[in-house]
Write a structure and sequence with these properties.
Layout lengths: L1 H4 L2 H32 L3 H27 L4 H16 L8 H29 L3 H17 L3 H10 L6 H18 L15 H13 L2 H31 L4 H21 L9 H21 L7 H28 L6 H29 L2 H22 L7 E6 L2 E5 L18 E5 L2 E6 L12
Antiparallel strand pairs: 1-4, 2-3
C-alpha cells in the first residue's frame, strides 16, 4: 500500500474518506434504531423503504450531478456537499414521524449521489500508476468497511453511555472534518480533460459506454448478488438480533462488525492476487460465495437461533461482498478513457444502486411479511441469477487489446479533434467534419466515438 500512500494529496483524501464513512456508519446503526423506535416490529419495512428512497436518489441524481459537476471546481463542490450532509443529519434526532425520516433521507442521499462518484473519479487523476491505483482501490474498500466494522463498534461504545440520537452528532462531525481535509489540498481540474458535449449527451454518455462494454455488464450482474447480501444485512440485522435472538443494541453493532471484518480481511489480501488471478474469476467466486451463504442461512433457520453461527455467516457474507466490490474500480478504470472517467463512475454508481433499490425493498417487505428464512432464500435466488448472467455476459477470454476492423466513417466533432485524436497540436473551437478510411488494427479497446460497438 506504500505506493499510493506516498502521495500526500491522496493521503489527505483517504483520511477525509475515512472520516466521512465513519460518520455514515454511525448513521446506519442510528437509522435502524430510530426505525425500531418509531415502528417497532415493522422496523424492517420502514428501514427498507428509507433505504429504497436512498437508492432512488442515487439512481436518478448521480448521472445528472456528474453531467453538471464537470464545470464546477472539484474541491469547492465536494466541500459544499459535505457541509449540506452535515446539516441534514443534525435534523434526524428531532423527527417524530416516519414520513419525516423519508424526506430527510432523500435530501441527505441526494447530496451523497453527487459526492461519491466525483470523489471516486478524482483518485485516478491523482494516482496515475495502475499499481498505485489498485492499492488505492483496496484502501478505499477498507475505508468503506469502517462503516461495517469500526462504526458499529464505536456505536456500541457510545450506546453504552448515550442515547442513539447522539450518533447523528458523530455523523455530522465526520463530515465536517472531511471538509477541512479536502480544503487542505489542491485537486486536479476536471475541466482540462472534458470532451465538449451537450448536456443531454453528457448525461447519457457514461451509461452508453458502460452498457456497451461486456465486462461491465458482467460487473452489473454481479452487483445483484452484492446488493442482495448487503440489503439483507443492513435491513434485517436489527430485527434478527432484537426479535430472534432477543439481544440488545450492542449485539446489533457486533453483527455489523462481523460483516465488516470479513470485508476488511479480503480487501487487505486481494491486491496481491490481482496479478495472479483474473479479476473475472475472483469476482464470480465472490458471487458464488454469496449465493451459498444466503441459501445456507435460509434453509438453516434453526442454526441461526444462537449467536455464533449467525456471526460466522455475517463474517463470510462481508468477505463475499468485498471480493466483488474491491476490484470494481479497476475494471471501470480499464474500460474508459481518462476524459470519460467521471461519467463511467457515475454510471456505475447509478446502475449498481438500482440493484440495491430492488434488494432493499425485497429485504424490507419480505422480511416483514414472510420472515427471515423466506427472505434469505429469495435473495439467494436473485444472487444466483446475477452470477449466471455475469458468466454469460462477461467473456472468459477478455483481453484489453483486441484486433478489430473499422469501416469507413464520416462524422463531425463539434469542437474540433484535439480531444479525440491524440497528438493534435491545437485545441480547435470550431466543428470539424472529416472521414476515416477503413482499416484493421489492434489496440486497447474502449467504447468511444470511434469504437461504437464491442467486436464480436
Amino acid at each position: 500500500m506504500l505506493g499510493a500512500l506516498s502521495n500526500h494529496i491522496y493521503r489527505r483524501l483517504l483520511m477525509a474518506q475515512i472520516l466521512s464513512v465513519l460518520g455514515s456508519g454511525l448513521i446506519t446503526v442510528a437509522l435502524g434504531l430510530l426505525a425500531y423506535e418509531l415502528a417497532g416490529s415493522n422496523a424492517a419495512m420502514v428501514l427498507g423503504i428509507a433505504l429504497a428512497i436512498k437508492m432512488l436518489a442515487y439512481v436518478g441524481l448521480a448521472p445528472i450531478a456528474a453531467a453538471l459537476a464537470v464545470w464546477i471546481p472539484r474541491r469547492g463542490f465536494l466541500v459544499t456537499l459535505d457541509l449540506c450532509r452535515a446539516g441534514l443529519v443534525l435534523l434526524l434526532p428531532f423527527v417524530t414521524q416516519v414520513w419525516q425520516v423519508y424526506i430527510l433521507v432523500f435530501a441527505f442521499q441526494a447530496f451523497s449521489a453527487a459526492f461519491t462518484p466525483t470523489f471516486q473519479a478524482t483518485i485516478p487523476d491523482i494516482l496515475t500508476d495502475e499499481e498505485d491505483y489498485a492499492q488505492a482501490l483496496s484502501l478505499s474498500r477498507l475505508t468503506y468497511d469502517i462503516e461495517s466494522l469500526v462504526s458499529p463498534l464505536l456505536a456500541g461504545l457510545l450506546l453504552s453511555i448515550l442515547s442513539f440520537h447522539f450518533l447523528f452528532v458523530g455523523t455530522a462531525l465526520g463530515f465536517l472534518l472531511s471538509c477541512i481535509l479536502i480544503l487542505s489540498v489542491t485537486l486536479p481540474k476536471a475541466k482540462d480533460k472534458i470532451i465538449p458535449l451537450s448536456f443531454s449527451k453528457r448525461l447519457t454518455r457514461g451509461m452508453w459506454i458502460y452498457l456497451n462494454t461486456p465486462r461491465l455488464r458482467g460487473l452489473l450482474s454481479l452487483y445483484l448478488a452484492v446488493a442482495s447480501a448487503s440489503a439483507m444485512i443492513i435491513v434485517n440485522t436489527v430485527v434478527y438480533v432484537k426479535e430472534t435472538l432477543e439481544l440488545g443494541d450492542k449485539f446489533v453493532a457486533l453483527y455489523f462488525g462481523a460483516f465488516g471484518l470479513g470485508s476488511i480481511f479480503v480487501a487487505i489480501i486481494l491486491p496481491r492476487l490481482f496479478t495472479r488471478i483474473k479479476l473475472r474469476s475472483i469476482m464470480i467466486f465472490g458471487g458464488g460465495l454469496l449465493c451459498f451463504l444466503l441459501a445456507l442461512a435460509g434453509f438453516g433457520q434453526d442454526m441461526l437461533q444462537t449467536l455464533l453461527p449467525g456471526l460466522i455467516i455475517w463474517l463470510f457474507l462481508g468477505a463475499g461482498v468485498s471480493l466483488i466490490q474491491t476490484p470494481a474500480g479497476l475494471l471501470l478504470n480499464r474500460s474508459c478513457h481518462e476524459e470519460d472517467r467521471a461519467a463511467i463512475f457515475a454510471a456505475q454508481f447509478s446502475l449498481s444502486h438500482a440493484c440495491w433499490l430492488l434488494a432493499y425493498l425485497a429485504a424490507g417487505f419480505l422480511g416483514t411479511w414472510y420472515g427471515l428464512g423466506v427472505t434469505f432464500i429469495f435473495l439467494a435466488v436473485v444472487s444466483a441469477f446475477g452470477v449466471i448472467l455475469a458468466i454469460r455476459l462477461w467473456p472468459k477470454t477478455d483481453p484489453e487489446e483486441i484486433e478489430h476492423e473499422h469501416e469507413e466513417l464520416e462524422h463531425t466533432h463539434p469542437f474540433g479533434d484535439s480531444v479525440h485524436h491524440k497528438g493534435a497540436s491545437a485545441e480547435f473551437t470550431t466543428p470539424l467534419h472529416h472521414t476515416h478510411k477503413s482499416l484493421s488494427h489492434k489496440h486497447r479497446f474502449i467504447i468511444d466515438d470511434h469504437h461504437l460497438k464491442w467486436p464480436n
